[in-house]
Every structure is written in C-alpha cells, then in structure tokens.
Design goal:
- The protein has one domain (about 15-90).
- The chain is about 75% helix and about 0% strand.
- It has helices at about 15-40, 45-90.
- Helix 1 runs antiparallel to helix 2 (about 45-90).
- The radius of gyration is 21 Å and the shape is rod-shaped.
- The two termini are about 20 Å apart.
Amino acid sequence: MSESRPLSAIPPVAARAIAFVAILLGGLAGGLIGFALVDLQCDGDCAVPKGIGLLVGAVLCAGGMAIVSVLALRAMGEWREISDRERAGHAPR
C-alpha cells in the first residue's frame, strides 16, 4: 500500500456522521407519521394518544434506520478491505 493508513475497522468520520444524521431524520419522519396517524383517527382531547403515536413512530423508524445504517457501514468496510487486498495483490482468484 502506498498510503500509510493504519488498519482499522472503524468507518470514516464522514460516513458515521451521515449515518447519524440519517437516523435522526428517520426518527423525525417516523414521529411525524405516528402523530399524523393518531391525529387522523382521534377526535376530541387526544394529547396522550398523539404523544404515544409520535414516540412509537419515532422509535420504530429510528431503530429501522439504525439497522440500515449499520449494515451500510459494514458493507463499506468490506468494500474497503477488498480494494486493499486487490491493491496488495492478495485478491481471490
């Protein structure tokens, strides 16, 4: 390898920051969806059900987005490992 980069399984900082922002946006979207679903179905004083809908939607969507982000970051690490092996001449034939 021509570049002197230490071996590490940690994804780049930019990729981790993008994944973090994606999780936050997923939670925001899920919260809005959960709130809207309860808001459409409830009449009268619905503060607690709307809050529960918001919380459940946000947690579920943020959790799903976290799973997708972890899988994407792991795939990036594997792609980097494969390209490093190819550059070093140790690629599978």
